C-alpha cells in the first residue's frame, strides 16, 4: 500500500495478510492487538525516544538471570494484571469448585512424589505448618488418587531456584490422595516476598511508586482422572500485603493459621517449637464441564 497516512496506517497493518483465512483466531487476536496498540500510541503521542526505551525494556525483560531464571516476561504479565484478568475471564463456570489462580514463574514440573504427611522442605528458621484437607468433587465426595503438586518459598521468601543455599527441590513436592481424598503435609509458614526487582520490571515499579510485595501464599496444581486440572494458590490471613499483592491475585482462598505452643501439643506432633495448623479443601470440576466449555468456545469462534 502506498500513500500511508495517519488515517490509514492502522487498517493497512490489519489488512496486510490473508485476513485470517489461514488462522482465524490468531488473526482475531492480531487485529485487536494492532488496533489497541495503535490507539495507545496515538493517545499518549509516543515519541521516538520513548519507543526506543520500550524496545530496550522488552529486550532486557526477556533476559534470563540468576534472580529470575526464566526471564521477566511472565512476571511482566502478572504485574500488569493481565495474568489475573485471563484467570478471571475463564474461571466463571466453576460453580462451587475451587477458584483457579496464577501458576507464577517458579513452577517446575516432574518433582518427586513424597509420602503423605512428609515434610515439603528443610528450613530451620521457619515456623512449622501442618497443612491438611481433602480433595472433593462438587458433590462433596472424596477424589482418590489426586496428584497434588505443591511449591512455595521458604521462610525468607525465596524459592529454591533463586537461592543456592537451599537444596534443589526444597519446598516442592507431589502428594497423592488415598481413598478418603485426604492430604496432609508439613511445611513452614510461607512469608510474603518481594518479586525479583533488580531488573527492568522492578525499575518501572519503583518509578511508578508501586511496591514489589507478594502476599504470603502456597502454590498448588491438582490433577485427577475425570476432573479438570486445577492450578491455584492459598493465601495466609493477616499477611501485611493481603490487600495490595503486586500481582492482583488474592481472591477468596485465604486460610487462618492456628498456633500451637503447649508442651503436650508439641509432644503429640513431634515438634520442638511452636507450630501452626490449617486446613484447606480443594473442590475439582468434572472434565465434562471443560469439554462443554471448549465446545462453547469453538461455537463462538466459528460465528
Ligand atoms: Fe509464589
Helix/strand order: HHHHHEEEEEHEEEEEHEEH
CATH superfamily placement of the domain at 97-287 = Aromatic compound dioxygenase
Q: Gap between N and C termini, in Å?
A: 30 Å
Shape: globular
CATH fold group of the domain at 97-287: Protocatechuate 3,4-Dioxygenase, subunit A
Mean pLDDT: 91
How many helices? The count is: 8
The helix fraction, in percent, is 25-40%
Named CATH architecture of the domain at 97-287: Sandwich
The level 1 CATH classification of the domain at 97-287 is Mainly Beta
Ligand catalogue: fe (ii) ion
Beta content: 15-25%
Which structural category do the helix and sheet elements fall into? alpha/beta
Rounded Rg: 23 Å
| Major sheet size, sense and barrel closure | 5 strands, mixed
GO molecular function: catechol 1,2-dioxygenase activity; ferric iron binding
Protein name: Hydroxyquinol 1,2-dioxygenase
InterPro entries: Catechol_dOase_N, Intradiol_dOase_C, Intradiol_dOase_core, Intradiol_RC_Dioxygenase
GO biological process, one term: catechol-containing compound metabolic process
Amino acid at each position: 500500500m502506498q500513500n500511508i497516512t495517519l488515517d490509514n496506517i492502522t487498517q493497512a497493518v490489519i489488512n496486510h495478510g490473508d485476513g485470517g483465512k489461514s488462522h482465524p483466531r490468531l488473526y482475531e487476536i492480531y487485529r485487536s492487538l494492532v488496533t489497541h496498540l495503535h490507539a495507545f500510541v496515538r493517545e499518549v503521542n509516543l515519541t521516538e525516544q520513548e519507543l526506543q526505551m520500550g524496545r530496550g525494556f522488552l529486550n532486557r525483560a526477556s533476559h534470563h538471570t540468576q534472580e529470575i531464571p526464566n526471564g521477566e516476561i511472565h512476571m511482566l504479565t502478572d504485574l500488569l494484571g493481565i495474568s489475573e484478568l485471563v484467570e478471571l475471564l475463564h474461571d466463571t463456570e466453576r460453580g462451587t469448585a475451587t477458584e483457579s489462580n496464577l501458576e507464577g514463574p517458579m513452577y517446575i514440573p516432574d518433582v518427586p512424589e513424597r509420602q503423605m504427611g512428609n515434610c515439603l522442605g528443610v528450613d530451620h528458621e521457619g515456623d512449622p505448618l501442618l497443612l491438611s484437607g481433602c480433595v472433593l468433587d462438587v458433590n462433596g465426595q472424596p477424589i482418590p488418587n489426586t496428584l497434588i503438586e505443591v511449591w512455595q518459598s521458604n521462610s525468607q521468601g525465596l524459592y529454591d531456584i533463586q537461592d543456592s543455599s537451599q537444596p534443589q527441590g526444597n519446598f516442592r513436592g507431589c502428594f497423592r490422595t488415598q481413598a478418603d481424598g485426604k492430604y496432609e503435609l508439613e511445611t513452614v509458614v510461607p512469608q510474603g516476598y518481594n518479586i525479583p526487582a533488580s531488573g527492568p520490571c522492578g525499575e518501572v515499579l519503583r518509578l511508578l511508586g508501586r511496591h514489589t510485595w507478594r502476599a504470603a501464599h502456597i502454590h498448588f496444581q491438582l490433577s485427577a482422572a475425570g476432573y479438570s486440572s486445577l492450578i491455584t494458590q492459598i493465601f495466609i490471613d493477616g499477611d501485611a500485603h493481603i490487600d495490595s499483592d503486586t500481582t492482583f491475585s488474592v481472591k477468596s482462598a485465604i486460610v487462618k493459621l492456628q498456633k500451637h505452643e503447649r508442651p503436650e501439643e508439641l509432644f503429640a506432633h513431634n515438634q520442638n517449637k511452636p507450630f501452626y495448623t490449617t486446613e484447606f479443601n480443594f473442590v475439582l470440576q468434572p472434565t465434562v464441564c471443560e469439554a462443554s466449555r471448549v465446545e462453547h468456545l469453538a461455537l463462538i469462534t466459528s460465528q
